[in-house]
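RECORD TYPE: inverse folding
INPUT: structure tokens
STRUCTURE:
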């Protein structure tokens, strides 16, 4: 409104602005459609890639199911869930292969260890059956009986190892004095050790209470002394030490024999493993594996070390919490 009361009206042609607006909206529409198409295409490509990886894992699992344990899932670099699943499956298959190889090794070693006494048993029984001399036949039967006892001992050790690994013996856990067990078992082995031309020193005077199965702990100490008796050799010096540390009781059985090489120390803890490739030494190769199973059952830590010379077997038992 002008000062004199008249009205001033201003007009403009909006066609150009409307054309600009329509062009912008049209461009945005096309851009939106293109973006949707690109997103859909990317999604389809990603989904196809994911499905190909899933199909590859599925195909691999079918091969495993058919008995091909060498099959493996393809290794990816995406680091996503599918890669984690594939890596987990591969790790599982590696463990399965190790277990199967271990079963084959144990089976072969068991067959080897049983073949000799069974062959001797067959020979002695066959000889006894053909003898006319009753006294000689009885002597052959006595030897055959000893071979049967040897075979039964192997099976008993296998069953014992299986029971320990299953953890069923934890029901008998109670407070036990480790020093008393060490002294008692060492005294039992002293005559055999001295008869073999070896010497035995025991230092386990301090009372040491741990939570465990007294019979299994005694078996572990017995197996360690038996191992030293068999393999340390004549003239060897065997020491049994029991010391108290901050939160553990450290048991050490040390001999001055030939020892065990660093590369063989883990191997001799496995069932039916022996350093002697001919397997001509007495025993079934279960002594240290049973010790290993007993220490695991009690939450203890077993280690084999170089005693310079000889072998040092150390077990760190957790002390009874008060």
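DESIGNED SEQUENCE:
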């Amino acid at each position: 409104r002008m000062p004199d009361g008249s009205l001033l009206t201003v007009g403009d042609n909006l066609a150009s602005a409307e054309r600009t607006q329509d062009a912008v909206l049209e461009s945005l529409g096309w851009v939106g459609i293109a973006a949707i198409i690109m997103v859909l295409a990317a999604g389809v490509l990603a989904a196809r890639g994911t499905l190909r990886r899933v199909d590859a894992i599925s195909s691999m699992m079918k091969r495993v199911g058919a008995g091909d344990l060498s099959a493996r899932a393809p290794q990816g670099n995406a680091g996503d869930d599918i890669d984690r699943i594939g890596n987990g499956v591969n790790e599982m298959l590696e463990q399965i292969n190790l277990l199967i190889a271990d079963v084959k090794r144990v089976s072969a070693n068991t067959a080897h260890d049983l073949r000799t006494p069974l062959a001797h048993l067959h020979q002695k029984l066959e000889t006894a059956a053909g003898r006319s001399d009753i006294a000689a036949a009885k002597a052959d039967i006595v030897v055959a009986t000893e071979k049967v006892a040897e075979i039964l001992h192997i099976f008993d050790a296998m069953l014992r190892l299986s029971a320990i690994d299953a953890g069923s013996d934890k029901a008998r856990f109670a407070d036990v004095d480790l020093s008393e067990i060490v002294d008692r078992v060492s005294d039992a082995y002293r005559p055999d050790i001295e008869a073999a031309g070896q010497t035995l020193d025991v230092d386990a005077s301090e009372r040491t209470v741990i939570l465990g199965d007294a019979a299994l702990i005694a078996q572990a100490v017995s197996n360690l002394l038996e191992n030293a008796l068999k393999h340390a050799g004549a003239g060897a010096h065997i020491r049994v030490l029991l010391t108290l540390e901050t939160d553990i009781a450290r048991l050490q059985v040390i001999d001055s024999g030939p020892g065990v090489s660093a590369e063989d120390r883990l191997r001799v803890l496995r069932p039916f493993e022996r350093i002697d490739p001919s397997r001509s030494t007495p025993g079934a190769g279960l002594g240290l594996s049973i010790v290993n199973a007993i220490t695991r059952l009690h939450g203890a830590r077993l280690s084999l070390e170089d005693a310079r010379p000889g072998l040092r077997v150390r077990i760190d038992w957790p002390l009874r919490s008060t």
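NOTES: The CA atoms of residues 272 and 285 lie 4 Å apart.
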